[in-house]
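Researcher: Let's continue the batch. This sequence belongs to tRNA-uridine aminocarboxypropyltransferase, and it's 268 residues. Same format as the previous ones, please.
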Amino acid sequence: MSEDFQEAWEDLMGIPADPPAMRELCENCRRPKPVCWCAYLPASPLITKCRLVILQHPAEEKRCLRTVPMLSLGLAPGFCLIFKGKKFPHNRHSGLEEIMTAPNSVLLYPSPQSVNLAELPKLPSGGFDSYNLFLLDGTWPQAKAIYHSSPLLHSMRQVKLLSTGTSEYVIRTQPTEGCLSTLETAALALTILEDREDIREILLKPLKALCDFQLDHGAVTHQSKEFLIKTKTYPKLIGKRLNRLLNGVSPNLEELDTDDPAQDQSNF
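Model: Same format as before. Here are the structure tokens for tRNA-uridine aminocarboxypropyltransferase:
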């Protein structure tokens, strides 16, 4: 046995068998306790007229900085339903098809037939006093894949947000300046449908805390992909479609979402 091999073997034998101690997690949000955002949740979960129905891509559950848990914990039980999958409805999605086909269900998705969400009646007709508001949770490619593989979604009434402002999720790269995280989209939509400005403010408190925690621990503020392309600071090679931006052609979401798997879905 050579001297180098013997030294390497001894080094290996000195490695402890037990795995390193993991940081203690919050039992509520499952975040490490030093960066837990639960203190910023509403003291009493919000009771809203509308019910959120989140169709979540399986890969989204693995993200450590996802925003849907803030919705599920910020809203009262039963007001935020989450179904996971790549195609909806599935046999395992008990009760989902019934909700999807209900006359008071609407899908927030920017299809050609989508109408301005602000134009919906504040209270649906037909004896209902609320909406089931569906959102797709994932990156843009994942959201589009869910939509195209789920024919029942196409038959739903579809709406979109025409005015969104700037995302406060500053630690994630968004496709364009007007794109929002799932949490921000849901909060804005509920604010509009229920004519309650306090909903958005209350639901976004955990997100602001999360961003502050991350920035304090070394994260940096992210500009949108659209901004980086226009300022010629985007770190990746630019394809033909994205190159149109540099020639003055207005961007669209189809062109901005294809090569960045880490971005959050922009939610219309």
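Researcher: Any comment?
Model: DSSP finds ten helices and six strands in the chain.
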